[in-house]
Specification:
The chain has 219 residues and is α/β, with parallel strands linked by helices. The protein has helices spanning 15-21, 48-52, 64-69, 74-86, 99-103, 107-118, 124-127, 148-165, 168-173, 184-191, 208-217; strands at residues 7-8, 28-31, 58-61, 90-95, 131-134, 175-178, 198-199.
Length: 219
């Protein structure tokens, strides 16, 4: 039986209470975003140092919603990833194509651009501390899920890109998660793929039973 790392990423306002609730357990705490800046005059920003006060170990960066609604681009995400790593936080860097990208055959082009741009400037050692989450935008909150083969194909492609950027041993050590309408009934099949190393769970995480079953089906 393999071990499963479980990370809970609540909104900023719940970090303190969740931190206390999971104290002494094998659950880990993550944040949904962070600033690229360190301490300083950046009103309204939440920097890595603030997150660490609540024992945060992970941080989601470049989620598709932030790319779409906050217009966050790859250069900004790369700065955030570097800031997170400098503070010993593990970035979960999200990449993924829209429906029109997939339908026009641009999935690999879009994903490669995001991977290279969002991870620009990282060393091999830093890259081994990064988690990549492939989240096809067309499958987030829509009830649609990439087929097992579609997910595997893109994950394998991402690993090839990482091999070109760094080297094969580094690429093999990077965890690549799938995110996009992951549910208890599809988790086991998705997790069985050779290049799918975990799941970035969205809506299903709001139901305790569903989230627990996804974790069980990932073993």
């Amino acid at each position: 039986m393999k071990e499963v790392d479980v990370v809970i990423c609540p909104p900023f306002t719940a970090l303190e209470s969740v931190s206390k609730a999971i104290e002494g357990t094998n659950l880990r705490l993550g944040a949904q975003n962070m600033s690229e800046h360190n301490f300083g005059a950046h009103t309204g920003e939440t920097c890595a140092g603030m997150l660490k006060e609540f024992l945060v170990r992970y941080v989601i960066l470049g989620h598709s919603e932030r790319r779409q609604y906050q217009l966050e681009g790859d250069p900004l995400i790369a700065k955030k990833a570097a800031a997170a790593l400098a503070a010993s936080l593990k970035p979960i860097v999200c990449v993924g194509e829209r429906l029109e990208d997939r339908e026009s055959g641009k999935t690999e082009q879009v994903v490669e651009t995001q991977v290279r741009g969002s991870l620009a400037g990282l060393t091999k050692a830093q890259m081994e501390e990064v988690i990549i989450a492939y989240e096809p935008v067309w499958a987030i909150g829509t009830g649609k899920t990439a087929t097992t083969q579609q997910a595997q194909d893109v994950h394998a492609f991402i690993r090839r890109v990482l091999t070109e950027m760094f080297d094969e041993p580094t690429a093999r050590r990077v965890r690549i998660q799938y995110g996009g309408s992951v549910k208890p009934n599809n988790a086991r099949e998705l997790m069985s793929q050779p290049d799918v190393d975990g799941a970035l769970v969205g809506g299903a995480s709001l139901t305790v039973r569903d989230f627990a079953d996804i974790v069980k089906n990932s073993i």
